[in-house]
């Protein structure tokens, strides 16, 4: 593995670096390796939501286990560590948006919102105020110095690559942030955690959305957006009514399991109509999408029109070939080479040129591959 | 991290252990006897406790008045008093959380200088159902001194009792329970340079207050549990060494406040015109969040605090500044700088150096 040094991160020796410490093993190793590299590391953990309220545990303190873990790690490394209260900002920028997305039939990615609206804006500002030269996170992605400034690249470990979640990072933010783990694989990170005897070396990875414990997101959606839990009909794309649902907030486009209807064929959620409170289901082919229209696009470099690039429209699926048909301001249209299923409005389509991330945008509209089948995928 | 000497300006949170207190603690630790035991070892420990009681009683003007009970700290002292109430309990809106967090406590407004609105107190007392009023002598975030004697007169006229939290005031200004006219008073050792986990509750009429912790007959049956002999000895030594008036602290605080104004014309000393304890300055630098100031100063080797810290270290919004009607833009940039026995004038200069850096880095510098 490549040694992490101040130089390898394009920093002066001994420069101050703020590390966003979540309490997990990745950011712990990030902080420890930067400290080992002789940098002046300051750990900051964001208090994003009331842990006691989120887990509905009586008497739980405002600080969850993750904050305690981050503090213990900082103490073990021997770096200053602070906890900042971002609850109000996180609620407004991430949680409310999360619930509103479901209420509008979209499938949100709160982690991107958090990076975009909290970590790389407010926390980055705090880091600058503390006189830091950079803000480092434990993301698996690479920041590569290019001819015209910093570029965002995929992580070396394709299985761990988190560049999808970072597509909204602006060029000026990218200039200031560092992803020291981008060259490591997860096993290497674990080994480093053990070598450095970090208290979180054996901590399991969290798969949940941090403010939605145990994946029960519909509870929080229903609380914030009661209209997302309006009862309505489950309709087949051919027009048949197949049953009732307890709110479109329970569904995401592309979902197959837990539809609550019995049918001979395998059915997927094809579209969600927030106004009519309708869930449309159909066979996989009914949900095939050829083109997506993007909004709030972020461009990290030029988007060459018509050239075959790789497009990733869901985090847990690989990028697929596609071309940018149109890019204007912060909107764009991207066409897939082969029709895609499970393309959900609210998710992001991220544009890759080989290893490099050219940015991406939020899927505003998914255009069906064949308009003869159905036109409700939006 | 810097190897330079740290500057500690957070004495309102806790003070470094005074050498006198340290010596007294160590000495008392050797007197291992149980103060309740009849033998020589027990008597030796008992003597430590009773000597300390005399010293602290004298420090609050209660040598021949009422009874002083040792507790685990001021939080326990406050809890004991609150639990003794059989009617409505009132407290100023700027009291410590150990008072305000108790269910059922009604808050009374303060004016913009942070002082209890006596007319509001009088009006509320007139309803006739109040049994207890809690009012701190000096505020822990702003240093503002409350009109305790005036409040005591109103409270007594209504047949209620007045409890005073003197944690920040003790050792900084004269504390005299007779002059204050209060019925009970809470104090803490570690704010004076004594050890943590040691406090006291003074009671004018011990019979009016049942023990919070029952069991053994220690402390005149007012607080069960074997006495914290070394903590009590350290408390007394710290109190004896902290004789007010603290003119030295007041002079340094003035220097600090003048320095701040010299650096940033728009900086504000909260409740500047109000009577204040000599050791606390709440200082607002508009445009720089208090949490950022505290972190940046810490990294520069200077320890101060912001608002009230929860156990996670997260900085919560100050209920004290809210109650005073301080605008959010000012409250959000307010830090507390608090001086103590170990503070020297060079510390003030070091603070001003580091703080001027913050003011200079502001996006829209006032300079």
Helix content of chain B: 25-40%
Number of strands of chain A: 17
Spell out the CATH superfamily of the largest domain in chain A: HUPs
Average predicted local confidence, pLDDT of chain A = 90
The total number of structural domains of chain A is 3
Largest sheet of chain A: 6 strands, antiparallel, barrel
| Topology of chain A as a string of helices (H) and strands (E) | EHEHHEHHEEEHEHHEEEEEEEEEE
Number of separate domains of chain B: 2
Largest sheet strand order of chain B = 2-8-7-6-5-3-4
Strand residues, percent of chain B = 5-15%
User: For the terminal residues of chain B, how far apart are their CA atoms?
Assistant: 30 Å
Helix content of chain A: 10-25%
Structural class call of chain B reads alpha/beta
Care to describe what's here?
- The complex is a heterodimer of chains A (378) and B (367).
- Chain A contains 8 helices and 17 strands.
- With 378 residues, chain A is α/β, with parallel strands linked by helices.
- Chain A has 3 domains: 13-214, 3-Layer(aba) Sandwich (Rossmann fold), CATH 3.40.50.620; 230-285, Adenine nucleotide alpha hydrolases-like domains (SH3 type barrels); 288-368, Elongation Factor Tu (Ef-tu), domain 3.
- In chain A, strand 1 (16-20), helix 1 (25-36) and strand 2 form a beta-alpha-beta unit.
- Chain A is globular, with a radius of gyration of 22 Å.
- Chain A starts with 15 loop residues before the first strand and ends in a 10-residue tail after the last strand.
- Mean pLDDT of chain A is 90; it is low at 56-62 and 372-378.
- With 367 residues, chain B is an alpha/beta fold.
- Chain B folds into 2 domains: 7-16 and 246-361, Alpha-Beta Complex (Aspartate Aminotransferase, domain 1); 19-241, 3-Layer(aba) Sandwich (Aspartate Aminotransferase, domain 2).
- Helices cover 38% and strands 15% of the residues of chain B.
- Chain B is built from 14 helices and 14 strands.
- In chain B, the strands form 4 sheets. A 7-stranded mixed beta sheet of chain B has the order 2-8-7-6-5-3-4, with helices on both faces.
- Chain B is globular.
- Chains A and B meet through strand 2, helix 3 and strand 3 of A and helix 11 and strand 13 of B.
């Amino acid at each position: 593995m490549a040694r992490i040094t101040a130089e390898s991160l394009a920093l002066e020796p001994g420069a101050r670096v703020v590390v966003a410490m979540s309490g997990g093993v990745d950011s712990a190793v990030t902080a420890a390796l930067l400290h080992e590299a002789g940098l002046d590391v300051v750990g900051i953990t964001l208090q994003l939501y009331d842990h006691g309220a989120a887990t509905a545990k009586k008497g739980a303190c405002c600080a969850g286990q993750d904050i305690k873990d981050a503090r213990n790690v900082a103490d073990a490394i021997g770096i200053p560590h602070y906890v900042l209260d971002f609850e109000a900002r996180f609620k407004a920028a991430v949680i409310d948006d999360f619930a509103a997305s479901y209420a509008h039939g979209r499938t949100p990615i709160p982690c991107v919102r958090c990076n975009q609206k909290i970590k790389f804006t407010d926390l980055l500002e705090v880091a600058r105020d503390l006189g830091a030269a950079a803000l480092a996170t434990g993301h698996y992605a690479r920041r590569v110095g290019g001819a015209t400034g910093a570029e965002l690249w995929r992580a070396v470990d394709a299985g761990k690559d988190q560049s999808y979640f970072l597509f909204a990072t602006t060029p000026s933010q990218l200039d200031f942030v560092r992803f020291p783990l981008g060259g490591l694989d997860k096993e290497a990170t674990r080994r480093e955690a053990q070598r450095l005897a970090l208290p979180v070396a054996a901590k399991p990875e969290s798969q949940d959305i941090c403010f939605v414990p145990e994946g029960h997101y519909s509870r929080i959606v229903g609380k914030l957006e009661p209209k997302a839990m309006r009862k309505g009909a489950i309709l087949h794309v051919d027009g048949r009514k197949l049953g009732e649902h307890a709110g479109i907030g329970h569904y995401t486009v592309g979902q197959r399991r837990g539809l609550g209807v019995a049918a001979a064929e395998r059915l997927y959620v094809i579209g969600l109509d927030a106004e009519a409170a309708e869930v449309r289901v159909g066979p996989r082919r009914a949900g095939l999408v050829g083109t997506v229209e993007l909004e709030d696009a972020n461009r990290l470099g030029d988007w060459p029109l018509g050239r075959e690039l790789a497009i990733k429209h869901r985090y847990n699926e690989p990028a697929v070939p596609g071309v940018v048909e149109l890019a204007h301001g912060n909107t764009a249209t991207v066409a897939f080479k082969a029709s895609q299923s499970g393309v959900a409005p609210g998710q992001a389509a991220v544009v890759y040129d080989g290893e490099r991330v050219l940015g991406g945008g939020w899927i505003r509209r998914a255009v069906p591959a064949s308009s003869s089948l159905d036109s409700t995928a939006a | 991290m810097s190897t330079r000497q740290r500057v500690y300006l957070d004495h309102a949170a806790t003070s470094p252990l005074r050498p006198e207190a340290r010596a007294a603690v160590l000495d008392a630790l050797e007197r291992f006897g149980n103060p309740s035991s009849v033998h020589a070892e027990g008597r030796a420990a008992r003597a430590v406790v009773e000597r300390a009681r005399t010293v602290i009683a004298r420090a609050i003007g209660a040598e021949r008045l009422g009874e002083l009970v040792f507790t685990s700290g001021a939080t326990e002292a406050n809890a004991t008093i609150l639990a003794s109430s059989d009617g409505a309990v009132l407290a100023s809106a700027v009291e410590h959380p150990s008072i305000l967090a108790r269910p059922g406590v009604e808050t009374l407004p303060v004016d913009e200088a942070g002082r209890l609105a006596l007319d509001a107190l009088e009006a509320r007392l007139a309803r006739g159902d109040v049994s207890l009023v809690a009012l701190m002598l000096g505020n822990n975030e702003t240093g503002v001194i409350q009109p305790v004697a005036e409040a005591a007169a109103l409270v007594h006229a209504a047949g209620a009792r007045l409890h005073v939290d003197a944690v920040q005031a003790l050792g900084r200004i004269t504390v005299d329970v007779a002059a204050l006219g209060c019925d009970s008073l809470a104090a803490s050792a570690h704010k004076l340079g004594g050890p943590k986990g040691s406090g006291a509750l003074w009671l004018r009429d011990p019979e009016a207050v049942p023990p919070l912790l029952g069991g053994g007959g220690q402390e005149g049956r007012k607080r069960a549990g074997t006495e914290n002999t070394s903590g009590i000895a350290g408390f007394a030594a710290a109190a004896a060494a902290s004789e007010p008036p603290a003119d030295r602290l007041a002079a340094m605080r003035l220097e600090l406040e003048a320095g701040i104004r010299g650096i940033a014309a728009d900086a504000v000393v909260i409740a500047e015109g109000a009577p204040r304890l000599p050791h606390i300055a709440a200082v607002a630098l508009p445009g720089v969040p208090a949490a950022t100031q505290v972190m940046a100063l810490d990294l520069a080797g200077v320890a101060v605090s912001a608002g009230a810290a929860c156990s996670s270290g997260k900085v919560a919004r100050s209920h004290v500044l809210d109650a005073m009607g301080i605008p959010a833009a000012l409250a959000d940039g307010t830090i507390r700088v608090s001086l103590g026995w170990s503070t020297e004038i060079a510390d003030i200069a070091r603070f001003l150096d580091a703080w001027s850096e913050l003011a200079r880095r502001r996006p829209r510098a006032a300079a």
